[in-house]
Write a structure and sequence with these properties.
about 220 residues, about 20% strand
Length: about 220
């Protein structure tokens, strides 16, 4: 089952997103899937459906509220206009609360812009039981990585020009220093290597990252 739904934000406002659940399991563990800078498009819905096929309830928040980007320039503009703090603590946290109403555990996974927001959810949202970030690193002013107490998995691209690998090094140093329960993987691939609709897609790297993400959530959400 899949449908577009509306749900409540913690501040009482209304958000919307794409919801799907596995057949005959309305109490399965939940995963909030966070979009890239393109918006809630067909590609990110397919990502959500992959998690539903793996046995999870899924909610993909529509962070652009109905808009989608059709090219990189427009996508960058929309991403730069986004209030990341509001998106993380309201739209995404509201999605987590929606899933928590029927799921004991809820994880969050994001890609690019969504990868940043997945880490912010790990920092700031009490509902986060596990988080996975694909090629997204938050700026220092967004919060302290040392505050993360839940399991975190990161996937970094060695050829990333959006989030250069030295940023990943610095971020990982902070996680290590704070004894955050994390694991990190690096791939000889460019940014957005997991998006099959974009020029940078790397099927080998994507397959490895998917397998690791699946194993991670299996351990931390289904155990």
């Amino acid at each position: 089952m899949s449908e577009n739904i509306e749900y409540k934000r913690p501040d009482g406002g209304t958000a919307s997103g794409f919801y799907a659940e596995p057949q005959n399991n309305a109490n399965a563990p939940g995963i909030v899937v966070i979009q890239e800078w393109w918006g809630l498009n067909d590609q990110i819905k397919r990502v959500g459906q992959q998690w539903t096929d793996a046995g999870y309830r899924v909610l993909v928040p529509d962070l652009y509220h109905g808009d989608k980007a059709l090219d990189e320039k427009e996508a960058e503009h929309k991403m730069n206009e986004l209030d990341f703090g509001d998106a993380a603590t309201q739209d995404i946290r509201g999605a987590q609360q929606y899933l928590k109403a029927d799921s004991d555990k809820v994880g969050v996974i994001g890609f690019c812009m969504g990868g940043v927001l997945a880490v912010l959810s790990a920092m700031h949202n009490d509902e986060t039981d596990a988080a996975v970030s694909w090629y997204g690193i938050p700026p220092d002013e967004a919060g302290d990585p040392a505050s993360i107490t839940i399991p975190l998995q990161c996937h970094f691209a060695e050829q990333d020009t959006f989030f250069p690998i030295d940023q990943a090094d610095a971020f990982e140093d902070k996680l290590k220093a704070a004894n955050v329960p994390y694991e990190a993987y690096r791939y000889d691939a460019p940014h957005a290597f997991g998006n099959e609709d974009w020029d940078y897609y790397d099927p080998e790297a994507s397959k490895k990252a998917w397998q690791r993400s699946m194993t991670f959530f299996e351990k931390h959400l289904k155990a």
